[in-house]
Write a structure and sequence with these properties.
mainly alpha, single chain
């Protein structure tokens, strides 16, 4: 007979992400497992965190910076480009892997009960482990060209990292749960990942979009990743510019007074919707898997 203090918990009635914090030891174990599995049999291991973005940077820099001459119109274009690439790569990797996290861990989910949110969150942490070495490289490159950030700019880097992490977690919870029932979700996310690099001012400056979209430019700014990349440029790229390189319109108008607060609210809304969707669908994960 069960003890009087034992409680039966209705499936799907947990505390969601709060349970992840309560089981943070399990979260650490999952992160270590994911990293070991990803680089099992690999010679370079975590060095791939440097090689892949470096190759991506070189391709874009040669194709856009040199062949299309964007380097001449944008001072320190290499810094501008790499600052956007590392942030977008963090987001796309987090979203892609978290979408597949529940299906990829089907065997573990069928055998034991633990907070299902652990799996999408763990993939975001793994992506953060890949992001941090790239961030170190970015900082080193910025220092070489005279990077002199302010305290506010350094704080903005931390804020944007947290915002993108939360955004990826919210979308990962949503698509990860839906993917259990409809595997088309993986293809949808693959398309999002393909578009997001071009839907944010990573390879080009924001003013190009404003000239094309005109009064509809606000639709472009509604994308939280657009704001995130622009703030990263403000924190990393702008402090590397000399006085004679500073031009008007380096940053979009109302970036901090309007678009950053909107992006933060949108990110929180996505997290809430993702958690709500995940909790409702997670009840039957074991049966569906």
């Amino acid at each position: 007979m069960a003890g009087q203090n034992d409680q039966l918990v209705k499936p799907g009635s947990g505390r969601g992400l709060l349970d992840v914090y309560g089981d943070r030891f399990l979260l650490k174990l999952l992160v270590r497992k994911e990293i070991k599995i990803r680089y099992r049999g690999s010679v370079l291991g975590l060095l791939w965190s440097y090689v892949k973005p470096l190759m991506q940077f070189l391709i874009y820099f040669i194709a856009l910076g040199i062949f299309l001459n964007l380097e001449h119109g944008t001072p320190n274009y290499a810094i501008y480009l790499f600052a956007g690439i590392v942030l977008v790569n963090f987001f796309t990797e987090s979203l892609s892997n978290s979408t597949r996290s529940i299906v990829d861990n089907r065997d573990l989910i069928r055998k034991i009960y633990l907070p299902r949110e652990l799996f999408p969150v763990a993939t975001v942490w793994v992506s953060a482990a890949h992001f941090l070495p790239q961030l170190v490289v970015l900082i080193a490159a910025c220092l070489l060209v005279g990077w002199t950030p302010s305290v506010l700019q350094l704080a903005a880097v931390v804020l944007i990292f947290l915002m993108v992490s939360v955004l990826a977690t919210g979308l990962g919870l949503m698509f990860g749960a839906v993917n259990v029932y409809f595997r088309d979700s993986e293809n949808i996310v693959d398309m999002i990942v393909m578009v997001v690099t071009w839907a944010s001012p990573v390879l080009y400056v924001w003013s190009m979009v404003e000239r094309v979209m005109g009064p509809w430019y606000w639709l472009y700014q509604l994308n939280p990743m657009t704001t995130a990349v622009e703030v990263f440029h403000w924190a990393f790229w702008e402090p590397t510019l000399k006085a004679d390189q500073m031009v008007s319109g380096t940053l979009p108008p109302d970036l901090f007074t309007l678009w950053l607060p909107v992006s933060l609210l949108t990110t929180l809304a996505v997290l809430f919707l993702g958690q709500l969707t995940f909790r409702r669908l997670s009840i039957h994960f074991a049966q569906e898997l």
